Structure formats: structure tokens, C-alpha cells
Amino acid sequence: MKFIFSAILFACLVALSASLNADSKGLLCSVCKFFWGEVKKELPVVADAGDAELKQVVNKVCTKFTNSIPLLGQLCKTFGNDALEEIYQFILTEDGKINPSSICAHTKQC
């Protein structure tokens, strides 16, 4: 009886752990898409502006929403200068336009 109870408890813990990981990934995905949607409003075509302008807009959006959206602070740390340079190059391969879904999938937030 103890073995069956232990097995059921273990199975529940594994299922709970898996569901929490999926939920947090979903939350990060939503925040990521929101974040890049806001960046897109400020800077729809990155190819015309350059990476310095992208960094400036990203910093502006981070500053604007970090206090109201807690997960955004974590996301802003993820998109540091090195990551932004790589994201900028990725955007250029995507017609130079910001596509939140593509960027978030590329950065493994979704």
C-alpha cells in the first residue's frame, strides 16, 4: 500500500512540475510577444534604422513596462547587448521588419 501511495505521489509531482514549466514558458511567450509588439510600434522597420536605434527602442520599452509587468524585467535581461546584436541580424533576414512571433520563437521564448 505504501508503494502504491508513493508511486501515485511521485506521478503527481512529475505532472505538476511539467505543467508549471509549460505555464511559465507560455507566460514568457506572451510577455515576449507583447514586448516585441511594443518595440514594433516604435520602430516598425529595423533595416532603415540600424542596430543602435533598435537598442535605444528596446531600452525605452524595458524602462516603460518593467515595473508594471514583472516578467518583462527578466526578458529585458535576456535581451542584453550581445543578444540584441544577434536579434538585429535575425530581423534583417526576416525582411528587416519586426515580427514578434518569429523573434520569440527564434530566442526560444515560445
Automatic annotation (TrEMBL):
<keyword id="KW-0732">Signal</keyword>
<feature type="signal peptide">
    <location>
        <begin position="1"/>
        <end position="19"/>
    </location>
</feature>
<feature type="domain" description="Saposin B-type">
    <location>
        <begin position="25"/>
        <end position="110"/>
    </location>
</feature>
<dbReference type="InterPro" id="IPR011001">
    <property type="entry name" value="Saposin-like"/>
</dbReference>
<keyword id="KW-1015">Disulfide bond</keyword>
<protein>
    <submittedName>
        <fullName>Saposin B domain and Saposin-like domain-containing protein</fullName>
    </submittedName>
</protein>
<dbReference type="InterPro" id="IPR008139">
    <property type="entry name" value="SaposinB_dom"/>
</dbReference>
